[in-house]
Every structure is written in C-alpha cells, then in structure tokens.
Design goal:
It is a single chain. By secondary structure, the protein is α/β, with parallel strands linked by helices. 53% of the residues lie in helices and 14% in strands. It has 2 domains: 48 residues; 250 residues, 2-enoyl-CoA Hydratase, Chain A, domain 1 (Alpha-Beta Complex), CATH 3.90.226.10. The protein contains 15 helices and 8 strands. Strands 1, 2, 3, 4, 5, 6, 7 and 8 form an 8-stranded mixed β-sheet that branches. Helix 9 links the parallel strand 5 and strand 6. Helix 1 runs antiparallel to helix 2, helix 3 crosses helix 11 and helix 4 crosses helix 13.
C-alpha cells in the first residue's frame, strides 16, 4: 500500500488496511481467510476504477503532484540506455532542476532534457522543488543547440510547477532566458517532442515545450497558472483551487479537445505512481512512434510544422449577437436619434429667435 494517500483515495486505503489486518490475523491464528481477502481485493479494484474514471480537474492535479510519481530520471532509467548527462550553462552554474544529455531509446540516438523534482527534503532542495533558475533554461538551450548540430531528435520531459520566481531568478533574467528558448526552439531543423509527465506550469514548462508534437500523460496537467494561483487572483482565496482547476481546462482531455496536445499517454489504473515500469513502456512507444514520423520530414518542413502548430493555437469563432444584445443596440440607436432630433429642434428654435 502506498505510504501517501490522496484525499479521494481514502476508501481504497481503508480497504487495503483491512487486507493487512486479515493477513496478520491469518498468520497469527492460522485461519484461512483467503476468500475474504480476495473479495476485498475485487472491491478495491472496482472502487479504484470508479474513482479514477470520474476524477475532477482538481483531483487530476493532485494525482499529477503525487510524490511517488515517476520523474525524469526514473523514465530515463526505464526507457533509455547509454545516458550521458551534461552539466552547466557555461555562464553561471549547473541547475539540477533541469537535467539532460545524450541517450539511446531502442537504438535511436536522442537528446533527452527534462525537469526534475526530488523525493525527500535534501533532493528537493538540490533541484529547487522542480522550479528551474535561468541557468537551467540556458543549459537546456545549450543542449538543444548541440542536438541540432549533430542532427539528433530532442525529447523533453516536463514536470514543473513553474520557473523559480524569486529574487535570484530576476537578477539573472529569468524572463529573458525563457523568451530566448521560445525563439530559438523555432529555428532547429531536428524533430522536437515534448511530453508533460506531471505538472506543466506556465512559462516554466513552455521554456522547453516548443515542439513539433506535444504529448501528455493521462493524469498530468498543463496550464498558464497553477489552480491555487488562479484562485488567489479570481476569488482572493486559494481554497477555491478546485473551481479554478475546472475553469482553466488544464487536464489532458481538455488539452486534446482544444488541440493543444497531440496525444494522451495512458497511465495504469490508479495513476503512474502505481507502476513505473508499465507507464514508462507506454511513454517509450509513444516517443519512438512520433520520432520516427517526424524524422521523415526535412529540416525546413520540421521548422514550418512547428511554426504552424503554435500559430494555430488559440483559434476561436465569433458568435452572432444574442437577441438581448440586439435589443439593447436598437434602444441605444433610438435614443441617439431622439437626442439628435431634440438637439436639431433646439438649434432651429434658437436660430429663429435670433433672427426675430
């Protein structure tokens, strides 16, 4: 049983606790309760399926933040071989919130770049809780330029609440670092594939997210702001994060619907944290499929494809004015005409008086 239980998973946790108690009872009293354990296990699976098939947007955000969820290093361990990590931005220092290097995926040479979180206090402090500094984005850009030079596909794995917003970031020009990454990413003549594996927060995610294909894990999210931040602005209270998550339309299903993501990578029932190996295989197959498809395009076609993809985002259709709006406009027009007639009458009367 997982040591970390999400609020909506409490019914599952209670059933799992009963299984532990029955197993202990079986061991100490030497009484066969296997049939009862099997019945509870079936109930757990049914309960988990029911819960995870009806998750709200806010619950999906909570799953995306699960501390046992696989991170970039975990995926690299499962899907890649010959990983050679590269460090530093050649300007300031090495930012451990973004890692990257050369690797092979089933013999396909690639450059893997991803945001990294920690498991405990020490590792979280080392990688700044997955919030990159400017030097992290400059390191990512250096690696992307290197991949472009050697003609290697670029694979980015995104899992960050956002770029670090502190004073140190501002001193070292975080906005400029992200902006340069956005600009330069459109100039590379190699395939670029981005996968949101957990949190996709704001410009911190987009800094390594300009790609020919954008994939997203089933229970990940991608948003211009965190639900808590949105709630603090709109409702003046972070307690409304569930409402803001729904309004932001940040889930994988919403992103696919609005054509902001190209494919949803399925997760095991109960989330990616339940089976790292299984979800890693799904990720590996998706990466290989899209890299193979994109590799058939010429460098100029890849650039054009990337440009057109992002230019097409945010399309909308203007709806026809409602009947109420038409009536309001008609009233305003009539009022303006009446005012105009009154003004004309006053001017005429005034002129006649002057002539007299």
């Amino acid at each position: 049983m997982s040591t970390y239980v999400l609020p909506f998973e409490k019914p599952i946790a209670e059933l799992e606790k009963k299984i532990e108690e029955l197993s202990e009872f079986n061991a100490t009293q030497d009484i066969d309760v296997s049939s009862e354990i099997k019945r509870i296990e079936d109930k757990i699976e049914k309960t988990r399926t029911k819960i995870y098939n009806n998750l709200t947007a806010w619950q999906k955000v909570q799953v995306a933040r699960h501390p046992l969820r696989p991170y970039t290093r975990d995926y690299i361990k499962f899907i890649a071989t010959d990983f050679t990590e590269l460090h530093g931005d050649r300007i300031h220092r090495d930012d451990r919130a973004i890692i990257g290097g050369f690797a092979k995926i089933d013999g396909q040479r690639v450059m893997i770049i991803g945001t990294q979180k920690g498991r405990e206090t020490k590792s979280n402090l080392d990688c700044n809780f997955g919030c990159p500094y400017p030097e992290g984005y400059r390191k990512a850009l250096r690696l992307m330029k290197m991949a472009n030079k050697f003609g290697l596909p670029i694979v980015t794995l995104i899992d960050t609440p956002g770029a670090y917003p502190g004073l140190q970031s501002e001193e070292r020009h975080i906005a400029e670092a992200i902006a340069v990454n956005l600009r330069e990413s459109f100039t590379f003549g190699v395939p670029i594939l981005s996968v949101i594996i957990g949190e996709g927060g704001s410009g911190g995610a987009l800094g390594i997210g300009v790609a020919n294909r954008v994939l997203i894990m089933e229970h990940a999210y991608y948003s211009v702001i965190s639900p808590e931040g949105c709630a603090a602005i709109l409702w003046k209270d972070r307690a409304f994060a569930d409402k803001s998550a729904e309004a932001l339309k940040c889930t994988a299903q919403d992103l696919l619907k609005f054509k902001l993501a190209d494919e949803i990578i399925p997760e095991p029932m109960g989330g990616a944290h339940r089976d790292h190996g299984l979800v890693a295989q799904s990720l590996k197959m998706a990466i290989l499929k899209h890299v193979t498809e994109l590799s058939a395009l010429s460098p100029q076609e890849l650039k054009d494809d990337r440009y057109e993809k992002f230019r097409a985002m945010g399309e909308f259709n203007e709806s026809k004015p409602r009947a109420k709006a038409k009536k309001t406009a008609a009233k305003k027009t009539a009022a303006n005409k009446t005012t105009s007639k009154k003004t004309t009458t006053k001017k005429t009367t005034s002129k006649k008086s002057e002539d007299a």
